[in-house]
Specification:
The chain is an alpha+beta fold. The protein is built from 9 helices and 9 strands. The chain has a 6-stranded mixed beta sheet.
Length: 210
């Protein structure tokens, strides 16, 4: 069962109020990447408008002694491509990336005195080959839709922690850039007891102070 199914209200906080701020914060990035997004993105769902190569979105919500992370990353940032693996080498790259994403302790470092224990991870992606199944059950239009959708391959990762002393959670550090060097910026939106905070992390500045 996914984290969102277990903690609906917390996920609504992440996906709702935090994402709304994230769109505004990244508005300038969309104009800087027209060579990637162009006219096609203007006709896509708003979720795809936020898909900017080199930029990963991370939302963090605190509810009592629970901490929830939600990451959305372009496939190009994570594995270097945004389509289904074309050979064994790409399949291995994808498998390694999923393995890394399923270990949040490799992605984030929380203060020891916050006494946070990792409880659950949920990782998904859409870098799949739709032609491998139901190929004869779809018409030409559906096939074209899948091809277009495949151009927007991305990853989603959700992590849940339980923190016995969450009042000591005064900062969060990320090692994302070490594992996924194609990313040049991570936007952070935080919502907790202390209020809401936004920040942009880079390889040279990878800590958010709460």
């Amino acid at each position: 069962m996914s984290i969102c199914n277990k903690k609906t209200l917390l996920c609504l906080a992440v996906s709702g109020s935090l994402f709304s701020v994230s769109y505004a914060a990244n508005a300038n990035d969309h104009h800087d990447h027209n060579h990637h997004d162009g006219e096609h993105h203007e006709s896509e769902h708003r979720h795809h408008d936020a898909h900017v190569h080199g930029v990963v979105e991370t939302n963090i919500a605190q509810d009592g002694d629970h901490l929830l992370f939600e990451i959305t990353a372009p496939g190009a940032d994570v594995v270097g491509f945004e389509h289904a693996p074309k050979d064994d080498a790409q399949k291995q790259v994808l498998a390694n990336a999923v393995k890394t994403l399923n270990n949040p302790n490799l992605i984030f470092t929380l203060p020891e005195n916050a006494k946070c224990t990792f409880e659950e991870a949920h990782v998904s992606h859409n870098l799949v080959n739709h032609n491998d199944h139901d190929d004869h059950d779809h018409d030409h239009h559906d096939g074209e839709h899948h091809k277009e959708h495949g151009k927007h391959g991305e990853f989603s990762a959700q992590y849940e922690y339980h923190c016995e002393a969450i009042s000591n959670l005064d900062q969060i550090e990320t090692q994302w850039f070490t594992h996924f060097p194609h990313t040049h910026k991570m936007t952070i939106q935080y919502l907790g007891d202390a209020g809401q905070k936004a920040a942009s992390l880079t390889p040279k500045s990878s800590v958010i102070t709460l």
